[in-house]
Structure formats: C-alpha cells, structure tokens
C-alpha cells in the first residue's frame, strides 16, 4: 500500500488506525506551528573499526541522526536507521561496508528502526509502528519490496491490546533463516518505577521466537519482574544470548546518576530445552551481546570508567572506543559498527519532521506559553531553568528571571534538572508572568518551592507563597487575572509528596484548596470555566503507577476524567481557542528497548490531541524519542 507520508497521523486513535486506510486521512489547511520539546541527541554518526578497536573511521555522516547499524552475513553491506528525511522520522537505509552506495529501503512516516539482514541477504527484519502505531516486527523483501507484519496479528499481539503493552523489539535471524528471535513486553502491565510510585514507566521484556511465515510463536526465556533484551543466535542456531536485568533498572539506566548503581548479566538459553547459562557476573550494566561463532560472546558495558567492549573468552583485552553505542559485530567477528551521539542540545524553533501536511513542527525548550500579543515565555531548561521571553521564532530573546543570580538555589540540583524556575504562564493582560521557583520532581516532598511573578520587563519581582509552609509549583492565571491555580506538595511518603490543587486570590492572598488528590500541572481554560490537570491514579498493588487527565471547575466541583488508559498521560495544555487539549501519552507503547536509551526518560511518550471533553483522541507524533510539552503557536503570532 502506498502511504502519503504527511497523511499518516491525526485522524483517529492510535489503535483504530490499524484498520483504517491511511491514505484516506485528509490533510488540514495550513495552520500555525506546533512547538514541542524532544529529549534526544542532536546528531549521530556511524563508525566502523576493527574488533580490537584499531583503525576506527567515520563510516556515514548525513549531518543528522544515523544509528542502529548492523552487518549483512557476508560483511559487504550494513543496514541502518536515519532521520535524514526530518528529525523524528526514522527510515531504513543500506550502504556498502565502506560507506558508499547508500540506498533508501523504506519511506514511511512511521518509526522504522533496528533492522537486520536475513542470512542470505534477501530480506531485512525490522521494527515498525506502521499499521496501528504499535512497535511490531516486519519483514521487507529487498527484491520485491513487499512488506509483511509478523507480530501484528491476533494470538501474537497482547491479549488485552487496548490496555497493556504490546511492543516487539530488536529482531534477530536464526542462521538457517527460518526463525526470528525478538524481545517483547506483550501481556505485561504499565508500571511506574520505584514500586509503582514513579511517573516514568519500567519495561518488562521476555525473549520469543517466531517462524518467518508468522507461525510458531514461542517464549523461550522469561523471568518475572525482569527485562530480557537484544537476543542474538549462536552460529549453530542452538542457543540465543541476551542481556538480563531487573525491570526496575530499565528506568535507572536512563539516569546518569543511577546508571553506575545497577547491573545486568549476559545470559543464553538453549532454544529447545530452555536451559539457562549465565555468562557474566558482578557489577556493571552489560548490553548488546552477540555470538562470534558458537562459543565466544562479545558485549558492551555501558557507563562509567569501565565502559567498553568485552568478551567471554578469558584474557581478551577490553576495547575502548569513546562514545560508542549499540555495537554490532560482523559475522566473522573482525569488525564492529556503531554510532556516536552528539548532545549539543537543540535550537529554539529548529525544524522537526511534521506529520501534519498543513502544520510545521518546531523544537522548543520546555513549557512554552503565549501572551495575547504573541510573545512567548518558557523555562530555559536547556541552560539553567531560568525564565525567558521571545518572539515565537526564538528571536528577540530576553531573560526576565535569572536562576543563577536571583534564586539562591543549589547549583548542583539546578544542573541535574531538579531545581529552577518552572512553568511560567502569562497573565491575561500580558503584563505579568507567574512561575514557580524551587526544588522539583523527586525533590518536591523535601525541598522548598514558591510561586513568584515578575513584569514582562523583568521588574516588580514578587513572592506570592510561603515556601516554609508547602512546596508550590506549576501556576496558571485565571481568565480574569484575579487568581492563580497551582499544585501543592507536602512531605508525606504515603501520598507520594503531593497535596492537591489550590487557588490563590491575588488581592486578598487567601488560598483555597480545590482538590486533594495526587494532582499536578493545573492550567486554566481560556474562558476561565475549567481547570485542566494531571492526577496520579492508584493501581492495585502499587502506590500510583498511572497518571490521567482531568478537569474541574474553579470551585472544585464537577470533576471530570478525560483519559483512562493504563499508560501515563501528562503535560496537558489547552489549545488557544480552548476547544482542544494537547498532551503527552504512553498509550502507543515503547518503540525500542528502554535500556538502549541515554538520558531519555519517557522514550515511549508521544504527543496527542483531543477535544476538550476527552473525545476524539488522536496521535500527532511518532518518533523513537520522548516528545513532550506541546503548544500550538497562536495564529496571530506566526
């Protein structure tokens, strides 16, 4: 089926699209840009080296993101993922092993990634979100260009497809070309880290095999509350090797401050009997295992001074290649291909791939908001979480609150993103900006934070709440400018440190509570009639585990729940006309194994839009990265 790349998203829910012809989705008229924050590297280049680390050389540099490369069995070709069609849109390419003869293999608005050649080189298996937005294993015939979805069928998909994860990742061909191994979180549950208390989700994976005709699905390795990933076959096809770690660590591995405190091991399983062999021991996060022949296993140790390429053969020296990620060795074990990420940061208003024919997508730092004259304010989290104002295109940028000079906050916490000036919002007349200053996220229950406001010229700085009483944050002005809603955090482990929403009267300075839940990120509707917010919802046997979107009247009455999917929803904002809500959701699931990401804490997060009453939910991004804090530029502010 030929798919119009720009008509892929925006017409139905993530799962309804599986049965809807994509080409029938109508493109809207030209509209103002969508701003979004994306957490991921700014560039990536492919390298190749001898397996001992010698003769390292640049292989492919498209000037954008190239990653997840692997060799053909004869070592003559590599297949890789590239975002050269637009940042966020990943397609498959192949090239000669010297970097020449680059050829496109797929052209889709979906995620296409993690491709591997069949043993005879005639096909590639890969991960794709086409046909329903969920990550499945597909096979592409390189001669006929015919595609087949191996895992997107009943009996292979999760039993409860609407409410549980159903992703399939990192395929690997058996040496005879008859089977594919892969990891999957099918029939698991959405669970937050730290025993369900965390906002971000963990990932529990098992190892499966399936015949290339889509039959014979079988789970060959699984362990409760663990993540088993990146399977690879032995040369004789008798064993499959993979990494194994606690599911809890699939969040820890994404955080530089926690990575060195966790471990994983390299394990193999006999395909017929299921007998396990553990090949490594001790600390260190070990990942990307691969057989060289039938006996030697090579792998990467991720993070810290011991980072490098290792072998299970005693006496083999550690190979150090600075910055290396996702290594893949040639079948003979003589060469290794890999990528190196660049983390220079993104540029305000940088063009991103747009899944909407009539609306350009642009990068923004976090929590952008617009005054009535079109001036934008945001948190400069990419710098030091100060408050900046600018034109929508990023020009005429000016700082109105400087965290380094004015806040007195611990610079270590600021650097870690746990403190700063967050969620700035304009007053209706565009003269004031209200925001929170203090300690956030994991610090909120034990650190201080207060509401502040400042004039648009940086004058008149004023403290609005007492941070010795409670941690206050995420404020929003009422439509008449007389009140500010915000979230309260108290130190109470049983409530995960949150105490509900409150409203501050700016004239009397009186505060009234309007909710008492695990509530956050409130924002007043443009007409002042409702307050939109995010609420933690208790799941059985957990503290919270799930977050959904609600609205409530300013007096605390008429509470309405807008989302109820077991995956978390967050970062909600009203569209300028108040008729729709933009938000971030995990409902479409992961696009890759979480352990392969770096500093990307919700890699399953995609952007959605829905009507103000919660109807007509539809996905509007489909990248492998975390997309968040969306905002439409008001039409008059282009």
How would you describe the overall organization of this protein?
The protein is mainly β and 638 residues long. It has a domain at 364-567: TolB, C-terminal domain (Neuraminidase), CATH 2.120.10. Helix content is 3%, strand content 40%. Strands 25-26-1-47 form a 4-stranded mixed β-sheet, with no helix packed on it. It has a 4-stranded antiparallel β-sheet with strand order 3-2-24-23, with no helix packed on it. A hairpin with a 5-residue loop joins strand 8 (112-117) and strand 9. The longest helix has 5 residues, at 411-415.
Task: Describe how the helices and strands are arranged.
Layout: E1 34-39, E2 43-50, E3 57-60, E4 66-71, E5 77-82, E6 91-96, E7 103-104, E8 112-117, E9 123-128, E10 136-141, E11 147-149, E12 168-173, E13 179-184, E14 206-211, E15 218-221, E16 226-233, E17 239-246, H1 249-252, H2 256-259, E18 265-270, E19 276-278, E20 285-292, E21 296-302, E22 308-311, E23 324-329, E24 335-342, E25 351-352, E26 361-363, E27 369-370, E28 376-380, E29 386-390, E30 398-401, H3 403-406, H4 411-415, E31 419-426, E32 432-439, E33 449-455, E34 462-463, E35 471-477, E36 483-489, E37 500-505, E38 511-513, E39 518-524, E40 531-537, E41 546-552, E42 560-561, E43 569-574, E44 580-585, E45 606-611, E46 618-619, E47 626-632
Parallel strand pairs: 1-26
Antiparallel strand pairs: 1-47, 2-3, 2-24, 4-5, 5-6, 6-7, 8-9, 9-10, 10-11, 12-13, 13-14, 14-15, 16-17, 17-18, 18-19, 20-21, 21-22, 23-24, 25-26, 27-28, 28-29, 29-30, 31-32, 32-33, 33-34, 35-36, 36-37, 37-38, 39-40, 40-41, 41-42, 43-44, 44-45, 45-46
Signal peptide: 1-26
Pfam family, one: PD40
Keywords: Signal
């Amino acid at each position: 089926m030929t798919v119009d790349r720009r008509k892929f998203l925006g017409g139905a829910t993530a799962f309804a699209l599986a049965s809807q012809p994509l080409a029938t989705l109508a493109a809207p008229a030209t509209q103002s840009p969508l701003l979004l924050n994306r957490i991921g590297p700014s560039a990536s280049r492919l390298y190749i080296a001898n397996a001992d680390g010698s003769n390292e050389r640049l292989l492919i540099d498209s000037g954008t993101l190239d990653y997840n490369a692997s060799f053909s069995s004869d070592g003559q070709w590599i297949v890789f993922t590239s975002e050269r069609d637009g940042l966020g849109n990943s397609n498959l390419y192949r090239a000669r092993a010297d970097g020449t003869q680059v050829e496109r293999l797929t052209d889709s608005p979906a995620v296409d990634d993690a491709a591997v050649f069949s043993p005879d080189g005639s096909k590639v298996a890969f991960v794709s979100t086409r046909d329903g937005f969920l990550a499945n294993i597909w096979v592409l015939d390189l001669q006929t260009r015919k595609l087949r979805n191996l895992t997107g069928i009943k009996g292979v998909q999760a039993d409860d497809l609407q409410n549980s994860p159903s992703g399939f990742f990192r395929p690997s061909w058996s040496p005879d070309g008859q089977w594919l191994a892969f990891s999957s979180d099918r029939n698991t549950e959405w669970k937050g880290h730290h025993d369900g208390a965390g906002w971000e989700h963990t990932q529990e994976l098992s190892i499966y095999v399936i015949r290339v005709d889509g039959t014979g699905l079988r789970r060959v390795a699984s362990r409760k509350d663990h993540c088993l990933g990146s399977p690879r076959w032995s040369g004789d096809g008798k064993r499959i090797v993979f990494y194994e770690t606690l599911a809890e660590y699939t969040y820890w591995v994404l955080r530089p401050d926690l990575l060195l405190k966790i471990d994983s091991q390299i394990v193999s399983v006999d395909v017929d009997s299921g007998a396990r062999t553990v090949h490594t021991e001790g600390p260190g996060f070990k990942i990307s295992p691969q057989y060289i022949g039938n006996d030697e296993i090579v792998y990467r140790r991720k993070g810290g001074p011991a980072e490098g390429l290792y072998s299970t053969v005693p006496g083999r020296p550690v190979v150090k290649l600075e910055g290396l990620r996702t290594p893949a060795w040639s079948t003979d074990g003589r060469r290794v291909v890999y990528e190196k990420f660049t983390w220079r940061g993104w540029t305000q208003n940088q063009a991103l791939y747009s899944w909407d024919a009539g609306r350009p997508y642009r990068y923004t730092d976090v929590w952008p908001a617009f005054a009535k004259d079109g001036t934008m304010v945001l948190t400069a989290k990419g710098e030091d979480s100060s408050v900046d104002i600018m034109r929508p295109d990023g020009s005429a940028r000016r700082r109105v609150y400087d965290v380094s000079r004015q806040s007195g906050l611990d610079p270590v916490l600021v650097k870690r993103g746990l403190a700063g000036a967050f969620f700035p919002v304009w007053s209706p007349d565009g003269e004031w900006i209200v925001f929170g200053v203090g300690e956030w996220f994991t610090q909120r229950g034990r650190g201080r934070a207060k509401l502040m406001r400042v004039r648009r010229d940086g004058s008149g700085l004023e403290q609005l709440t007492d941070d010795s009483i409670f941690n206050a944050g995420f404020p929003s002005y009422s439509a008449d400018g007389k009140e500010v809603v915000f979230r309260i955090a108290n130190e109470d482990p049983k409530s995960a440190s949150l105490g509900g929403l409150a409203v501050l009267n700016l004239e009397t300075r009186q505060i009234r509570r309007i909710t008492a839940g695990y509530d956050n990120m409130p924002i007043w509707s443009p007409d002042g009639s409702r307050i939109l917010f995010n609420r933690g919802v208790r799941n059985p046997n957990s503290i919270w585990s799930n977050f959904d979107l609600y609205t409530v009247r300013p007096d605390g009455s008429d509470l309405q729940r807008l989302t109820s999917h077991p995956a978390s929803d967050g970062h909600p904002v009203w569209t300028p006309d108040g008729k729709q809500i933009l938000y971030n959701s995990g409902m479409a699931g992961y696009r890759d194994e979480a352990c392969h990401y770096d500093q990307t804490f919700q890699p399953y997060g995609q952007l959605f839009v829905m009507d103000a009453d919660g109807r007509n939910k539809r996905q509007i991004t489909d990248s492998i990265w975390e997309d968040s804090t969306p905002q439409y530029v008001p039409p008059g502010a282009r």
